[in-house]
Amino acid sequence: MIAVVIGGGTMGAGIAHLLLAGGHEVVLAESSADRVVTARSAVAASLAKAADRGKLATTPDELLKNLTVVEQLAEVPAELVVEAVPEDVDLKRRVLANAANACPDAVLASNTSSLSITALAQGLPGERVIGMHFFNPVPVQQLVELVVHDGVAPSTVASARKWAEDLGKTVIEVKDAPGFATSRLGVAVGMEAIRMLEDGVASAEDIDTGMRLGYGWPMGPLRLTDLVGLDVRLAIAEHLAAELGPRFEPPALLREKVARGELGRKSGQGFFTW
Ligand code: CAA
After folding, report:
1. What is the pTM of this model?
2. In this predicted model, what pLDDT tens digit does every residue of 115-134 receive, in sequence order?
């Protein structure tokens, strides 16, 4: 089957990898010639890591034959579109509206980690729109969180679930509430860990070790914030504070670090040095 992924950053490249490894043809749309090149390399690098770990049934080169990276999405008979562009409602609406025309039969899924699916669906064929929230690193993390708004067609929910399950993921279904299930809880723990660091309760290393060895997390909440990006987590916390109240107000330390450009792993410095 054919799937379209819009946006070739960390999440988009990971989703493209997953779809290719699942035997699908993938059209990956980016927004400039430079980004087309970078996106293709990101998918190739991710597939190479999976191959090194013996996780691919074939070679990355074979799978990459099924990948087309384009600067402008044209008409394509896709059954699934997943957008993974930055967390900006207008941008996401724009790319989904374009995809709705280019792929008239496709489920229109957003990988947003916090934005309202109801808001995204406005002005679009809402019955085809759903939240399909993947987790970083996409080929590794087992979950897909389906976010269901009032206007979605049951056939869209069933189709998104089938896509995710056929790709080997476990699905949870969540109503369109701020932060869904996972971002709301994940950000709550992440913000509290930062406040504990501010209060001098323990060092960053010890807070993380506490959750890793005490609770069996694969990485502690501060290292995870570095992986996700401090700017990304700040934006989600601000959104949740606006929607759910001051208990989600981001800690000053997070704001200061983002203002200094300490964005986590991608900038080389966050709560840890990378
Ligand atoms: N395909 C592609 N890459 C793979 C892979 C595969 N099958 N298996 C592993 N890798 C990658 C890893 O991502 C890692 O990449 P980097 O070199 O870029 O770090 C590398 O290969 C090493 O992998 P290992 O398995 O050897 O490393 P590890 O045992 O340290 O595991 C981890 C790394 C999978 C990230 C693990 O620490 C983990 O699960 N951490 C928690 C991640 C998490 O909580 N993710 C959710 C974030 S929240 C989110 O995504 C939602 C949101 O809305 C923001």
Report:
1. 0.95
2. 999 999 999 999 999 999 99
